[in-house]
Structures are given as structure tokens and as C-alpha cells.
Amino acid sequence: MNAKKYISWIVLILIATLIPPILNLPGSLQYLLDLSLIYAIVAIGLNLLMGYAGQISLGHGAFLAVGAYTSAYLTLTLHVPFFIALILSGLITGIVGILLGLPALKLEGNYLAIATLGFGVAVTQIFAIWTSFTGGFSGIKPLKPELFGFKFNSYLSYYYIILILTIVLVILTWNIIRTKVGRSLMAMRDSEIAAKAMGINVSYYKTLAFGLSAFYTGIAGSLYAHLLGFMTPYDYAFSIGMSLNFLAMIVIGGIGTISGSIIGAIIMTWLPQITSNLPIKSLSQIITGAIIIAVVIFYPNGIAYAGARLKDKFEKLFAKHQEKIVVKIEK
Amino acid sequence: MLLQQLISGFATGGLYALAALGLVLIYKTSDVVNFAQGEMAMFSTFIAYTTMTSYGMSYWEAFILALLFASVLGFIVERFFIRPIQNAPVLSLLIVTLGLMMIVNGIAGWAFGFETHSFPAIVGGELKIFGAVISKSNLLTLVITVFIMGILFYMLKYTLAGIAIRATSENPTIARLMGIAVNHVYSITWVVSSILGAIAGMFIAPTTFLDVNMMSSVLLKAFTAAVLGGFTTFVGPVVGGLILGVLENIASGYISAQLSSTFAFALIVIMLWIKPTGLVGQKVGKKV
Fold this sequence. Notes:
The complex is a heterodimer of chains A (331) and B (288). With 331 residues, chain A is mainly alpha-helical. Chain A is built from 14 helices and 2 strands; from the N terminus they run ααααααββαααααααα. In chain A, strands 1-2 form a two-stranded antiparallel sheet. A two-stranded antiparallel sheet of chain B has the order 1-2. Chain B is globular. Chain B has 11 helices and 2 strands; from the N terminus they run ααααββααααααα. Chain B is 74% helix and 3% strand. Chain B is mostly helical and 288 residues long. At the A-B interface, α5, α11 and α13 of A face α4, α9 and α11 of B.
């Protein structure tokens, strides 16, 4: 990565750190900001699976539920400290991901989509019935996180925990992509048979991709549980609808880009908020569907790429302009 | 008791089979798994409901109208959403059908509201055969389903359109060289598939009740039926649907009816694990 890119990321982190206290957002908007970052973590995890490993998942809402309930159970029933519960729920969700990855070894494309869709529906159904673990319809109340006696009570203070974790996970993702694992995943995505011929253990990397992706989502699930303060298995974030929204995030932002995942997550979190005042109740859903179709048809590489292309065109235009001037002078 | 369970199992299984046949028809010809199938069927069912309640049409008038609507919807979806990206990778096509699923579901919520309605059955009442109590609507559903499948298989086997569909599903390029208008075949399969979905939707609605999310579980069952029987043959989804219907009926008696989708998921995973081609499927070689 070049220096220019480093600087732009540092500036971005500075903005993300400083803007919320400066703006002093009301609670509901700060909540959405927290949520955007949590969804960004899910989107990065999903992108690792879909964008880099080339596997489809329509069940990430279920992974989020697994992470959220694991964390809630650990902190409420077993009195495990928040930060340990956070990592444990990531790991446990990762294991669930590996388990789902095992049957997925034999599947590809459409079949994988069907199987993961089934997984998503099944988990919600099981959680709704398993009331001793999830509290069922009456719900449970995950505690606000605490560290060295400081309670992260406000959405603003919690925002910084999420922000730090997001940065850590982004750096982790970079390192995964830029090393052997990432290269193998991408080789597998581009051609499974060619990857096999190159000596890549396809089964291992497929399961690993599912595990990693679920790990990210589990971390996000834990963060989500403690953000909510009250949750039931019927929460929209755990449903198939949300799994589709996660997919929409990375499609809109750009499949196979980290920045795209973050952009997509932010767009998809704020879109329902923006359209909520309009008379059509399900407008954000209609818009989302229309956007992802448009993106696939017109910008198959997502908005992050579309932006780069626009910049490219602009620069070319500018360059041509300069050329013309030079020509005129020569005459 | 057993006869009763078999009949009601076959009745629901037949409906899963119809929806699954719609999926397989499209999959075999254009390599797309249509995730919007359930939502399209839901929308058509709502058309039937609205024309019945708001415009005072009879059941069968509304039924026919809904089927007309379904065919137009199927045509539009194929022509304007799928055809422009026909040759795109699987993932793109999948995402487009998922996008359609969101749009259709959203528009239905906007146009028809989010309340749950009760949808009338074809006929009421029960019959007693050999001591088993069988609802008339179950029996009639079964008869109609078998009849529709009969027509469909006759068409696939003996009519020109059916032969064109089968040829396209074997190899679109060669079919085109043989003078088959492959694009028309795509249109036909989407229209037929949409109609099959709508029929399944209207027959299932009396038991599941009608709301914008009614078809999400039915779609999963249709997928299960298709996976069980195999995506590669036309007989597969019928076999898969009937087996699923009966199994589900028996399982709901012993396990819990609330876990029916979990049951379907377990079947999908087991089947894909043991025999990914399905019970009656053929193995398709992979091109490198």
C-alpha cells in the first residue's frame, strides 16, 4: 500500500474519531452511527467470504444471532467480563461457521445459497423455541459493557469500543488478504480447479473462509447485543431480510473491497432512517432491491469502484485538455 | 389415520412440487435459481384476494385473473431483469433475483399492507373414506395438482414448445443452431414458472394465511423439494415435493410443527451431503 492510501485512511480514522463528539448527535443518531460500524464489521466478514473466497452466504443474520446470544449468555448467566465474552462469542460463532462450512465443501453457487438460506431460517426458528437460552418472546437484557470500573453507558462511549474493534479487524483483514491465506482464497475464487492444480488445499481454505467470516460476524453480534440492551429472537437483525441487507451492503459498496464494505454498511444503515418519514413504509426495501439490481447490471464492481472510475475519467478529461493546450501552443 | 396423513401430506407435497417445478424449469433452461419465485407467487395471490374482496369476483374469476397477472409478471421479470445479464456469472444473476425478491415484497407491503388475511379454500367440508377424515379441499388440491402436472409433462414431452424447452436445457447454443428461438423459450419458462408458483400460492394460502411474508417458508420447502429430487430432471422436484410433504406431515406429529423449516434445512444438508444430485438426478460434468 502506498503512502497516499495510508494518509487517507488515517484522515478517515481521525474524522471517525472526532466527528461524533463535535456534532454532539442526539441519542438515536449516535445509535445509528454505532450500528453502522457494527454492520460494517459484518460486511467485512461477509466480503471475506463472498468477495475473496467466492462463496455465497444468505445466513449471516443467523451468525449475528449466534454471536449476540452467546455473548449475552456468557455475561448474564456465567458472569464473564465483557471483553472476554466478546472474543469467545467470536470464536464460538466461528466454530458454527466451520460446521456450516463442512457441508458447504461439496456445494457451490446456487446450492450454497439455498443451504445457507435454510441455515438462516433454521437458526431463527430454533432460537425462538429455545427459550431457556434466548428468553423467547419476553427477551433478555444484555448488560452494558464495563472495563476497569468504567461503564460504557452512553452510545458515544460505546462508539469508541466499536471503532477500535473495527480498525483492528480492518487491519487483520488486510493482513489476511495480503498473505498466503488471502492469495489462496482468491485463487480458489477465480478457479477452484486451477487452485487445486496449484496445490492449494481447497477444502481447508473453504472451511477457513466460513470460519473467519463467522468469527467477524460473531464479534459484531456480541457488540450488537450490548448495544441493544434488550433483544428477542424475533429481532429484524437476525432475520433473512437482514441477511439480504448484508449482501446488499457488499454488493452496493463493492464485492472484494474493504472500503466498499464500510461504505455499503453505512448506506444500508442510514437508508431506512432517511426514508422512514416518507409515506411508503417499505420504501427503503424497494430502493435497496432496485439499487443492487442496478449495481449488478451497470456497475458490477460496486460503488467503490464506480468512484474510482469516475476519478479516472475526470483525470483523463483533464489530461486531454492539457494536451489540447500544448498542441495549440505548438501551432 | 395413516391414510389421512398420506392424503394431506400428498396435498401439501404436491404444492411444494408445483413451486419446485417452476424453479427447476427456469434453472434447467437459463441456469438461474429464482429466489424471487415465492414473492412473485405471493403477489399474484394478493391479486386474487384483492379482486375477490374489493371487486366482488368469484373464486374462479379471481383465480384466472391472478394467473394472467402471474404470466405478465413472469414475462416482465425475464425480459427486463434477467435477459440483460443473461451471460453474467452465477453470483450476479443470484443477486438480481434477490433484489427482485426485495422489490416485490416491498411493493406488496406498500400496496396490500402488512396485515394477515384469511384466504378462502376452494371448497369447505370433509369427506369420510374408510374411516379416515379427509378435507375436501385437500383432495381437490391434490386432484388439480396432479392434473396440472399431467398437462405440464404432456407439453414437455410431446408439444413443439416442450421439445424446444428440453433442447434449450440440454444446450442453448445447439438449440439456437437448430432454429429454436431460445429467447422465446426463456420467456415461456418464466411465464409457466410464475403461473405454477401462483397456483401453489393460492392453494397454500388457506392453510398458512395470507400476508407479505407467507411465501418465504414455502420457497424454502420448494428448494428442499428440488434438492431432494434433484435440480437436473423434471421428475425430480415432483418426487422430492411428495416425499417432503409426507415426511413433514409425519414429523410435525412427532417433533414440533414449529420446527418445520429447521426440518427442511436438515433435509437439504443431509441430501446435499449424501447425494448432491438428488434422488433421481443425473450427474452433470463440470467444464474446466
